[in-house]
Specification:
By secondary structure, this protein is of the alpha/beta class. The chain is about 30% helix and about 25% strand. The chain has two domains: about 110 residues, Nucleotidyltransferase, domain 5 (2-Layer Sandwich), CATH 3.30.420.40; about 110 residues, ATPase, nucleotide binding domain (Nucleotidyltransferase, domain 5). The strands form four sheets. Strands 1, 2, 3, 4, 5 and 8 form a six-stranded mixed beta sheet that branches. It has a five-stranded mixed beta sheet with strand order 11-10-9-14-15, with helices on one face. A two-stranded antiparallel ribbon has the order 6-7. The structure holds beta-D-glucopyranose (BGC).
């Protein structure tokens, strides 16, 4: 079965049809810049544009950068506050004219990695960490997700961890890979002390450059890059329509 997967990010909104049996993208992804302030109307319009670019008629899964309970946005960190309390399932369904199901972006990326990627066949505790505009977390135990964990907001040196160790901070502060790895290492060490995972999977756009920073990390747990790299969000969003 084919499902359109859409990944709403802080800088871009990306989508492609996905074969949910194999996890393959069925066409090259479309990427449109996230509208300034990331307010509900304009973001939903971009999702509709992406669906229209594929002449899409069918289910749509959407990964969204916020905790989502039964389709409703609970909190906003890197998006407009206007989202809080909004039924995102309804908003996207109305504007695209297709049935839409919205889930947290890191959770859905984690689904893709657990089903087809770096976490496949892994029992025990697996933590997916997405490094982008913010930091997203998804925690799996024996393949089951504990949804909506928000450990990107863990305290680090008196700040939100995502304001210290997200990839956007590396770019803004022009950090060398060595300096960035040091910050990420401090973050992963905190997470390790709380959860003692068997595996960390690092996702987000920066995972493409994993060889520049993963070898510099010093944590007990195994650390691997996301196999789908930045596409985990699209594939996972599509999978999410089938239930968690
Ligand atoms: C949000 C999370 C999201 C993460 C990555 C955080 O600021 O609170 O819900 O998963 O960013 O986008």
């Amino acid at each position: 079965m084919d499902v359109l997967g859409i990944d709403v990010g802080g800088s871009g909104i990306k989508g492609a049809p996905v074969n949910i049996k194999t996890g393959e993208l069925l066409a090259e992804r479309v990427r449109i810049k996230t509208p300034k302030k990331a307010e509900p109307g304009p973001v939903a319009k971009v999702a509709a544009e992406i669906a229209a670019s594929f002449n899409w008629r069918g289910p749509i899964g959407i990964g969204f950068p916020a905790p989502i309970k039964h389709g409703v946005v609970m909190m906003a960190a890197n998006i407009s506050q206007k989202w809080v309390g909004m039924d995102a399932d309804k908003l996207f369904t109305n504007i695209t004219g297709n049935s839409c199901k919205v889930g947290n972006d890191a959770d859905v990326a984690g689904f893709a990695e657990m089903k087809f990627g770096a976490g496949k066949g892994n029992s025990g505790t697996v933590i997916m960490i997405t490094l982008g505009t913010g930091i997203g977390t998804a925690i799996f135990y024996n393949g089951h997700l504990l949804p909506n964990t928000e450990f990107g907001h863990l305290d680090m040196d008196g700040k939100d961890a995502e304001h210290r160790a997200a990839d956007s901070v590396r770019e803004q502060e022009n950090l060398s890979w060595k300096k960035y790895a040091k910050r990420l290492n401090a973050y992963l060490n905190q997470m390790e002390k709380l959860f003692w995972p068997d595996l960390f999977i690092i996702g987000g756009g920066v995972s493409k450059q994993h060889d520049k920073f993963i070898p510099l990390l010093d944590v007990h747990s195994k650390v691997v890059p996301a196999q789908f790299q930045n596409e985990a969000g699209i594939v996972g969003a599509a999978l999410f329509t089938q239930g968690s």
